[in-house]
Amino acid sequence: MSETRAAGPSALAGRAPGDFEPTPGQTIGPFYGFALPYEKGNELVPIGSARSVRLTGTVYDGHGEPVPDAMLEIWQADEHGRISAEPGSLRRDGFSFTGFGREATDDAGRYTFSTVDPGPTEEGAAPFISVVVFARGLLNRLFTRIYLPEDAAALANDPLLRSLEPERRATLIGRREADGGLRFDIRLQGDGETVFLQFPRNAD
């Protein structure tokens, strides 16, 4: 049986910095699916309460296959357009709306949140939910938005949506279902790829 030894300091001595190849950053592992979700993390409001809206969808990879071990975080205003500063996202009390939720996809790539339809944060603005996506193979998390579909005038005037071609714009607008819920599928690559945002502090 042959023996494999890790390269120690002596093996690296005398090598110039230019002799080393750059390597990619560490990708997310499947541990996210069981280590970071927490009890009622996907319940921004209690399921079935009068104000609750079901937000659901599927995360797909570049081949159109569901991603079973992704994790999503959402941030949003309440139904009156207020951005909450309430603590309690990690310990739900059933009363405080903090605007934050976290959920892992299931074996079929699906996620579900119990939340509210956000209101506009200023008059005439298009309401939206901010989304962060973590998944294996991603060197960094991805940022996107879910816009509510109802206010056509606000959507037409939104600066981000106006900067996109119609088919790209459509990837950011949720679909209202018959029961009043909101559906938003996320495609990481390929046909119909969801528009992802880049912020200056998260460009690396």
TrEMBL record:
Alphabetic keyword roster: Dioxygenase, Oxidoreductase
Record flagged with keyword Nucleotide-binding: no
EC number: 1.13.11.3
Residues annotated as domain Intradiol ring-cleavage dioxygenases: 48-190
Claim: Oxidoreductase is one of the keywords in the record: yes
SUPFAM superfamilies in alphabetical order: Aromatic compound dioxygenase
EC category: oxidoreductase
MF terms in GO: ferric iron binding; protocatechuate 3,4-dioxygenase activity
PANTHER family with a match to the protein in the record: DIOXYGENASE, PUTATIVE (AFU_ORTHOLOGUE AFUA_2G02910)-RELATED, PROTOCATECHUATE 3,4-DIOXYGENASE ALPHA CHAIN
Protein name, as recorded: Protocatechuate 3,4-dioxygenase subunit alpha
